[in-house]
Amino acid sequence: MAEDTIAILGGTGDQGLGLALRFCAAGREVVIGSRKEERALEAAETVGKQVPDARVAGRENGDATEGAGIVILSVPFEHTAGTVKAIRERLAPGQIVVSMGVPLATAVGGAAAHMIGVWQGSCAELVAGLVPDGVAVVSAFQNVSAHRLQTLSDPVECDVVVSGAKEPRARVMALCELVPGLRGVDGGPLANARIVESVTALLIGMNIRYKVADGIGVRFTGLPDA
What CATH architecture applies to the domain 2-210? Predict the structure, then answer.
């Protein structure tokens, strides 16, 4: 397993593509995944044009998953379970799956600023119930603006609450430090993803009310530097 390789499933979407750009700009190897390989290849080409020395490839989701140390799920909530089930046999013990999904009401035709209930408590906990034994699930990146991620000339200026088991949580927090302006915040156990995911709906509503096209970020004050 190439522990430094980051697979981003759904890397053809705005937020996933933004993460791919940022991680490649930081020198990490990234594999963009999609249900259709041609879309993944197109996204990889887009990254390569903006980050000329990028180590980036595009593959079908299952191929992208295999061998990556960290697999980021950047897909809409309604596609999360199906995506995890499709890659389940390609996951191996020791890998970390990062859940970015949020159960917004858009999944059932409702408003983006509203949430729907998930039996497991959160999208991240749903994912944890679907991955094989030995694969860790971490919740992160739900509240980072896609527009700000894609604007490589500017720092992102946002905190990322990272929840999950201690060691995988620390590894994902370290990813945050690769992006100028991002700060990983220790969010404790995975169950706290329930709170973090709901903040996304709040921010969407605030973006609408304040007409912030670039997206509002979150900062926590009073945290120690270390």
Answer: 3-Layer(aba) Sandwich (3.40)
